[in-house]
Amino acid sequence: MDISAFRASLANTAPPAGLSHALAALWWDAKGDWGKAHEAAQKDDGPQGCAVHAYLHRVEGDLSNARYWYNRAHRTPAADGLKDEWKRLAVELMG
């Protein structure tokens, strides 16, 4: 799946089958459901899940919590726009 197909899947009511928890979290975030996005991110305790978890707390405006999750992901906190970070993470997660 590429970024165009991923964005097109947002027209559906559920994420495509087989997405990682981290990628499903980004899908739910793009659909405007922060709660489901956060729930999905919490299911992935690895570096990618922690990076998405950090992004979600940045979306929420909880920068202290976001910094905690960036640290767990071994990443520098993002300084670019939220849309740019979302796209960067989605592309990374799709490999």
Q: In a few lines, what is going on in this structure?
A:
By secondary structure, the protein is mainly alpha-helical. It is built from six helices and no strands. The termini are close together.
Structural summary, described in words:
With 95 residues, the chain is mainly α. It has one domain. The longest helix has 14 residues. It starts with a helix and ends with a helix.
Per-chain topology:
Elements: H1 3-8, H2 21-30, H3 34-42, H4 47-60, H5 63-72, H6 82-94
Which structural class is indicated by helix and strand composition?
mainly alpha
The DSSP helix count reads 6
Q: Give the overall form.
A: globular
| Relative strand content | under 5%
Reported for the largest beta sheet, the result is:
none
Radius of gyration (CA) equals 12 Å
Brief descriptors of the model:
single chain, 95 residues, mainly alpha, 6 helices
